Structures
1.
Amino acid sequence: MPAYGLKQERIELEKRRLIRGALVLDETSYLSRSFTLGSLVTPHEDFPPFPIHLKEGVKDTNDYSDFILESIQKSEEYEIYIDFVVGDGCKAQQSAMQNDQLSGIKNKLRNSNL
């Protein structure tokens, strides 16, 4: 994230090393530009959702699969493991914060993706 600063981004990702979580996809637009944002959501209250990937012009299934792959590869560089990819950011965040047991979160995130 250029506005956030690469150094600060690395620090924040380093704090999340060895954590498991979900990749949440959100869409946003500004004027005529459309962006897809991938954020890491974890069950730990110490770590709020954190953006790990931003890309412009994600439009079809191939673009989304590339975006997801790039996001997962970036997170794995920091040993952050993505268990799920979820399309609804609000539901995923609520599910992750309600229960800090990984098995409970897996079920809740699966249900929110349906």
Note: Strands lie at 20-30, 33-41, 50-56, 81-86.
2.
Amino acid sequence: MNFGETTGRDVLGHILETDENARRLGECALISEDTPIHEKGILFYDTLYDE
């Protein structure tokens, strides 16, 4: 992963260097706007629900 933003660059760099796989995307779910989850408009802050 390359990142070019200057604000917070050192912090992000440190985070990405703490774990050998931190630079890789793990899991990502794309949902359409007409799903019941999206229509709730809530971020649950829990990976079981926010996935």
Note: Residues 9-50 form one domain.
